[in-house]
Design a protein that fits this description.
This protein has 284 residues and is α/β, with parallel strands linked by helices. The protein has 14 helices and ten strands.
């Protein structure tokens, strides 16, 4: 496969006095045939004291493969059952219909629990339209930070579970909600995801502002949040990031933060809140 380097959008520069926070906006999935390299990020890292990243909330194939080594028990349907035995018939029928579009194997992924099988199906559907979850900007920044000897701080949002941690206590109704959200994404959301990925790869911020994240992406996250709605989850993630960024704007120094792009660009989002608090910032 021939790959090409892409920097994506430039970083937003938020500052007050000698305090500087550079924000890299991330989205997923991205085009499958690109690698990420940003000379701007590499340059700023040379004078950076810390890199801020959030633990991933989504299940991705690389993380599932890691779990196959670390804790296989969380990945498979138990008691000798198969996927068709634990999903409602209508939901399994939708799964089977989409599976038939990506493989001729009618039994593929039947041994996996519903949310893991849905992740494999989603990845296969992404592959067909040249998208992938492989490029994780947070993970890429961790590697670059280590190379430059820069400290990495993991931003944790109170009450918002990491998906892999949540697998151990996830109820069947919650898991079905996540499967349904994933199926809806595969059934009708791919054109929007393609547009978003191409806009990010081309650094087209204006286009991205007009292509907000699909609501299905938040449906599973909301279901994991003890019955509270998606808007509450997003509000707490936004507030956590606002608090952390403000902390590093109180003293001289340079920080890089990897933040979900929609959290930045949405109306009333993180950039609007920082502007309202009187911080200066420049867009890419």
């Amino acid at each position: 496969m021939v790959t090409s380097e892409r920097a994506g959008p430039g970083m937003w520069h938020v500052h007050r006095g000698a305090a500087n926070v550079w924000i890299l906006g991330s989205i997923a999935p991205l085009p499958r045939d690109i690698t990420w390299r940003s000379k701007q990020v590499e340059t700023v890292l040379e004078s950076t004291s810390q890199v801020l990243v959030q633990r991933p909330l989504e299940i991705s194939i690389p993380r599932i493969l890691w779990m196959l080594i670390a804790d296989r028990s969380q990945l498979f349907v138990r008691g000798g059952k198969r996927l068709k035995d634990v999903l409602p018939p209508d939901l399994h029928a939708r799964f089977a219909a989409q599976r038939g579009k990506v493989t001729d194997d009618a039994g593929k992924w039947e041994r996996y629990r519903p949310i893991i099988a849905a992740a494999f199906l989603q990845q296969a559907a992404f592959h067909q339209v040249n998208l992938s979850m492989r490029l994780d900007l947070g993970a890429a920044l961790r590697i670059l930070a280590k190379k430059h000897g820069v400290r990495v701080e993991e931003v944790k949002v109170a009450g918002v579970s990491d998906m892999l941690d949540a697998l151990k206590t996830m109820s069947p109704p919650t898991e079905r909600t996540c499967v349904e959200a994933s199926l809806t994404l595969v059934e009708s959301g791919l054109p929007r995801l393609i547009d978003r990925a191409q806009a990010w790869a081309g650094g087209n911020v204006e286009r991205l502002e007009n292509l907000p994240e699909l609501k299905e992406v938040d449906a599973c996250r909301a279901a994991l949040d003890a019955g509270r709605g998606a808007s509450d989850v997003i509000a707490r993630i936004r507030q956590t990031w606002l608090n952390v960024i403000e902390k590093y704007l109180q003293n001289a120094g340079t920080t890089i933060a990897v933040v979900n792009l929609d959290l930045l660009l949405e109306r009333g989002g993180l950039l609007d809140e920082l502007r309202a608090k009187g911080y200066d910032y420049e867009a890419p």
